[in-house]
């Protein structure tokens, strides 16, 4: 797919932030978009704000895009709405803080939303995509999936898992017409990163971009099909640096960690 015009598209987590920006852009470019979010009123509002002047369409379907039942219901109702799903954006994500001491619930929720949602969607989408020889999955991962991050072990670990799953799908099925892409931004001003946490602000604030900037990069990447979508281009250099010298990379992140520890934690 090099353009979304006329395509049947699903975007999860479209009630806010990056998902909302992607859905608006796709609809404006003429796609027929299903917007999903746990937050029904928010996603209906985003759907109503979508421009459909170019022949696009925007339909809100609220619900859980992570659980097995939720993903099944979303894909069934999206197929009723769209016919075929040409592009599925597994974008919904959560950020829970802490290290090993984070609760079992926070770890399980992070696996569920940040990784298993993608696995469950792919399980249901692949049979038809492989049968017809085309399908397109875009996973919103994070630079934390390429580089790790101070602050949240559940986030860093599950985003590596999301990247690994997207890579596996791509390496296994690209010769069968499947396109898989992974969006890996650093800070983006959204509900998840809203400027209220001083440590996050120190870590990500200086290079933060807007959700529409991510949508710009995604549109360019859909046109050329590259696997890694990097709204912060510098992430490519950092990723190469981490691979070339992991100890240097970890020592550098540890210095950032020590800096962040000097910033009062809003949780303490
Ligand atoms: N904001 C950043 O700095 C940043 C950076 C890198 C990656 N990301 C990733 O971008 C994606 C979108 O996050 P955002 O920054 O736009 O945050 P956001 O909080 O503004 O939006 C996330 C949306 O996902 C929805 N959601 C959460 N769990 C859901 C579920 N189980 N089913 C359906 N909807 C669900 C939320 O209700 C929310 O509307 C996430 O995967 C996040 O990890 C964000």
Kindly describe this structure:
The chain has ten helices and seven strands. With 268 residues, it is an alpha/beta fold. Strands 3-2-1-4-5-6-7 form a seven-stranded parallel β-sheet, with helices on both faces. The longest helix has 29 residues. The radius of gyration is 18 Å and the shape is globular. Helix 1 crosses helix 8, helix 3 runs parallel beside helix 4 and helix 4 runs parallel beside helix 6. Bound molecules: nicotinamide-adenine-dinucleotide. The site of nicotinamide-adenine-dinucleotide (NAD) has 29 residues, from helix 1 and strand 2.
List the helices and strands and how they pair.
Layout (H helix, E strand, L loop, with lengths): L7 E4 L5 H12 L3 E6 L2 H10 L7 E6 L5 H15 L4 E4 L13 H29 L2 E6 L3 H4 L5 H21 L4 E6 L14 H7 L6 H14 L3 E2 L4 H11 L1 H16 L7
Parallel strand pairs: 1-2, 1-4, 2-3, 4-5, 5-6, 6-7
The structure holds nicotinamide-adenine-dinucleotide.
Nicotinamide-adenine-dinucleotide binds next to helix 1 and strand 2.
Concise account of the structure shown:
It is built from 10 helices and 7 strands. The chain has 268 residues and is α/β, with parallel strands linked by helices.
Main attributes of the structure:
single chain; 268 residues; alpha/beta; seven-stranded parallel β-sheet; 10 helices
Number of β-strand runs: 7
Portion in helices: 40-55%
Please give the largest β-sheet.
7 strands, parallel
Cα distance, first to last residue? 48 Å
Side by side, the strands of the main sheet go 3-2-1-4-5-6-7
Q: Low-confidence stretches at least 5 residues in length (pLDDT < 50)? A: none
**Helix segment tally:** 10
| Beta-strand content | 5-15%
Which small-molecule species are bound to the chains here?
nicotinamide-adenine-dinucleotide
- Which structural class fits the helix and strand makeup? alpha/beta
Radius of gyration: 18 Å
Helix-strand string: EHEHEHEHEHHEHHEHH
């Amino acid at each position: 797919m090099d353009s979304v015009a006329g395509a049947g598209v699903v975007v999860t987590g479209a009630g806010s932030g990056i998902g909302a920006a992607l859905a608006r852009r796709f609809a404006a470019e003429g796609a027929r978009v299903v917007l999903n979010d746990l937050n029904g009123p928010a996603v209906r509002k985003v759907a109503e704000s979508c421009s459909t002047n170019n022949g696009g369409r925007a339909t809100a379907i609220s619900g859980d895009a992570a659980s097995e039942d939720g993903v099944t219901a979303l894909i069934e109702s999206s197929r009723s709405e769209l016919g075929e799903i040409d592009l599925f954006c597994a974008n919904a994500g959560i950020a829970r803080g802490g290290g090993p001491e984070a609760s079992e619930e926070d770890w399980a929720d992070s696996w569920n939303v940040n990784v298993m949602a993608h696995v469950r969607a792919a399980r249901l989408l692949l049979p038809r995509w492989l049968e017809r020889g085309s399908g397109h999955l875009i996973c919103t991962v994070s630079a934390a999936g390429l580089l790790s991050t101070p602050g949240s072990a559940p986030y860093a670990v599950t985003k590596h898992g999301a990247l690994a799953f997207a890579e596996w799908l791509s390496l296994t099925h690209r010769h069968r017409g499947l396109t898989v892409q992974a969006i890996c931004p650093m800070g983006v001003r959204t509900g998840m990163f809203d400027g209220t946490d001083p440590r996050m602000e120190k870590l990500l604030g200086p290079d933060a971009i807007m959700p529409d900037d991510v949508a710009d990069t995604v549109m360019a990447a859909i046109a050329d099909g590259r696997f890694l979508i990097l709204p912060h281009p510098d992430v490519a250099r950092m990723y190469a640096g981490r691979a070339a010298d992991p100890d240097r990379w970890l020592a550098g992140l540890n210095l950032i960690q020590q800096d962040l520890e000097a910033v009062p934690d809003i949780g303490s």
